[in-house]
Write a structure and sequence with these properties.
This protein is mainly α. The protein is built from 10 helices and 2 strands. Helix content is 72%, strand content 1%. A two-stranded antiparallel ribbon has the order 1-2. Strand 1 and strand 2 form a beta hairpin. The longest helix is centred in the middle third of the chain and has 43 residues. The two termini are 31 Å apart.
Length: 288
């Protein structure tokens, strides 16, 4: 699972592509709503929430990962340059001179360090957030609330997470969960089971991102927990046949990822059983 996007060597920017995990989560949310009718309006709503959850959120989160990897404090140490600001007749040590010196530092820091390193990424993230909120406004207050809360939690994660890799895993969880919720809310009201399944899907994305970036066995255990949670949900809802299907899918995923701990890597298709499990649970929700 790749959440970094593809970098352009010419510009240093990020060229985003649709993420399978996010798209599948959104489809699961649409299926779980049990309200899909093949009409132009509904398909348009689903397409718009897909753009928000996958493309625009992917763009914003990619910029946040870039910003998290920048050490501005180290870059700002020892910065020197000519004074672009000068107050005529300001006596050394006077308030005017001190103001000019402080303004010099801000101008130099912004022009020589902050903007080249972080300015474009920050501006792109801000414009992307504004676009996501504007698009969500046309879909209703509930959609707007989900998008706004997703962005708010993302900002909190930037502050709380100490390392870029940790931030990347949590952003995976957030984006996949938001995608499921947007898919479900695009066509109907949200139910508590749908919210819980969205969080489980996000935890699965968190675990797989940890495994795909060379994580420890703890991520493999978390993935198993999410799989068995799906199984228990189906057993409690008296759907043993679907539960058995997820057991088979879980074993297939475990075998496909087994080489990861033997140093042979994982198959590019190792996430397919997980996607099948999520779609199975989404279909089961419609029978509850």
């Amino acid at each position: 699972m790749k959440y970094e996007g593809t970098r352009s060597k010419a510009t240093g920017g990020v060229a985003l592509v649709p993420l399978m995990d996010v798209s599948v989560a959104l489809i699961c949310g649409v299926v779980a709503s049990d309200r899909l009718v093949w009409s132009g309006i509904q398909l348009l709503r689903v397409w718009i929430v897909w753009l928000i959850a996958d493309i625009i959120f992917g763009l914003i989160f990619a910029q946040w990962r870039i910003l998290k990897g920048i050490d501005l404090q180290e870059a700002l140490e020892g910065i020197e340059g000519d004074s672009p600001v000068l107050f005529p007749y300001a006596v050394s040590g006077s308030p005017g001179a001190r103001l000019a010196r402080a303004t010099d530092e801000i101008v130099l820091q912004w022009g020589d360090v902050v903007w080249p390193l972080a300015g474009r990424a920050a501006l792109t993230a801000i414009l992307g957030a504004a676009l996501a909120l504007a698009m969500a406004t046309f879909l209703g207050r509930k959609i707007l609330a989900i998008v706004a809360l997703g962005l708010m939690f993302g900002v909190i994660l930037i502050v709380v997470c100490g390392e870029r890799e940790t931030l990347s895993r949590w952003l995976c969880l957030l984006q996949v969960s938001v995608a499921w919720l947007l898919g479900a809310r695009a066509l109907g009201p949200l139910a508590m089971p749908t919210v819980g399944l969205a969080l489980l899907m996000g935890l699965g994305a968190y675990a797989r991102e940890g495994l795909d970036t060379g994580g420890q066995r703890g991520f493999f255990g978390l993935l198993w927990i999410t799989n068995w949670s799906f199984i228990l949900i189906l057993l409690v809802s008296q759907q043993p046949a679907l539960a058995m299907a997820i057991v088979i899918a879980s074993l297939a995923e475990a075998m496909s990822r087994g080489g990861q701990f033997l140093g042979t890597g994982s198959s590019p298709l190792c996430n397919a059983p997980w996607f099948a499990s999520a779609l199975t649970v989404a279909l089961a929700v419609t029978r509850w």
